Amino acid sequence: MIIAFDDTDSRNTGMCTTYLGALLFEELQQYGPITDDPLLIRLNPTIPYKTRGNAAVALQIETSKPEEVISHVIGRVENFAQFQDENTNPGVVFIRPEQFESCRTELANFFLETVQQVIPIDRAKEIIARNKIEARGYKNGRGLIGALAACGAVLAGQWDYTYELLAYRQPDNWGTLRRVNEKSIWEADNVTYPETWDNVDVANNMVVCVPHSVDPVLYGIRGKNKDTIRKAANMILGEAIERSLLYRTNQGTDMHLIPASFIEDLQDLHSYTIELKVTTVPHTIEGGHTFFKAADKKDKNIDCAAFEPTKNFRELVRKLIPGDLVILSGSMKDGTLNLEKLEIKRLEPKFELVNPTCPSCGKRMKSAGKNQGYRCRNCKTTASEPEIIEIPRDIEIGIYEVPPCARRHLSMPLIRKEQNSYIHPSR
Ligand code: ATP
Predict the structure, then answer these.
(1) To pair with 295 at 20 to 30 A between CA atoms, which of 73, 326, 373, 424?
(2) Per-residue pLDDT for 171 more than 90?
(3) pLDDT tens digits for 186-240?
(4) In 3D, which of 279, 314, 308 has the Cα closest to residue 401?
(5) What average pLDDT score do residues 389-416 get?
(6) Confidence category of residue 418, pLDDT binned at 50, 70, 90
(7) If you average pLDDT over residues 31-42, what whole number do you get?
(8) Which percentage of the chain shows pLDDT scores above 90?
(9) Which atom of ligand 1 is nearest to the CA of 215?
């Protein structure tokens, strides 16, 4: 049986759907074996009503006591969900083995759509009713969307994945300052990077695997190899943890990015990869946000932004000039493409006007006065026009990304792509 749930936590009072997943992963084993990796699914990262990372969780159990499993799960959701938060609308979905085949294609598609698009709640409710799926939605039932998508992730079979080990704090410590030895995290990263990633942000000198919110997570270690992840986690020193769980996840896969060709096809609250030509010199406004315009093959322009939290990524963006050919990845919000990755395909040559060189002595001439051309002081030669010289660009062709401190859960770190000189992973 597949068990999936979503939308149990609150930005103000804490909890985390993944914590409930870890608890149930242990408790449900009394009813039979958990038959696959627990799944942590990240959904459309632009959804406004998400608490933090728009996550849903799915577990798979082989059991002869499905009714007991269902009532246990419902009891736990009702105990733990932060119902008092108006933004918390839990959803729980159960799919019995005999329903797997009839639901597989529809729910696998629903999973991808929920990662990339905006789904109305009625759509989830209609799928649940038509397929006679057992489900419980609380309040407006919005959590059913994520829970149903997480079931789809189980049934979808093949998709790119990574892992994350989440370690949870002792309940007495929830809401207090986290006590983690930062040096041990840098050491763990040093030993296990690049098989684990996003533990630290080297360029910005900060630890990024320890959250600052009120949730029960102490730290999360991401990577592709389970043993290396566990090795890193074992090296981290700090307050005692209550439990931990290693999730399989669609984090770090770029699953949210929709390939697009034309700006007219881009919609708010969706994320895209699109090839464009830079059309304005990037400018930075107060607060540090950097903007430029870029056009598609129909010469339609769009505003592109690298916001302040993307830190050193903005320095790269500021080096773009009109004419550069780029492939941009990011989310559409208020008609602006918020960048998370930037591939430079072709660099426009950059020219500068300089005083002409003297044909006799080879030195640069001086201005002879406003609108009076140029003159060599030594040789008295003159020239009316400045010289145009090509100056080297201080960026290279290649793929660049925002630093780990600004990375979206779903964004694929470049370190996951094949290593070659064309790629510039940010550390
Ligand atoms: P939690 O840790 O509790 O999962 P979160 O940051 O993941 O917190 P939620 O509290 O789950 O956020 O809120 C996200 C809500 O948005 C859920 O109700 C989920 O079902 C819904 N949702 C997720 N993806 C989509 C989508 N593509 N379209 C519409 N609703 C969505």
Answers:
(1) 424
(2) yes
(3) 999 999 999 999 999 999 999 999 999 888 999 999 999 999 999 999 999 999 9
(4) 314
(5) 95
(6) low
(7) 97
(8) 89
(9) 2
Q: Omega into 48 within 30° of 0, i.e. cis?
A: no
Distance between CA 223 and CA 385 in Å, rounded?
Answer: 59
Cα of 8 to ligand 1 centre, how many Å? 9
Which atom of ligand 1 lies closest to the CA of 89? 18
Task: Report DSSP letters for 76-130, one per residue.
Answer: HHHHHS-TTSTT---EEEEE-GGGHHHHHHHHHHHHHHHHHS---HHHHHHHHHH
C-alpha distances (whole Å) from 152 to each of 34, 235, 259 are: 17, 35, 22
Could you tell me which of 177, 247, 187 has the C-alpha nearest to residue 212?
177
Q: 114 C-alpha to center of ligand 1: Å?
A: 10
Distances (CA, A) of 394 to 197, 320, 321, 351, 399: 28, 9, 11, 13, 15
Alpha-carbon gap, residue 121 to 114, rounded angstroms? 11
- CB burial of 158-169 (b: ≥16 within 10 Å; e: otherwise) equals eeebbbbbbbbb
Helices 66-80, 17-27: inter-axial angle, 10-degree rounding:
140
Ligand 1 pocket (Cβ < 6 Å) reads: 6-9, 16-17, 43-44, 47, 49-55, 89, 114, 117-119, 142-143, 145-146
Encoded tokens for 274:
């699109």
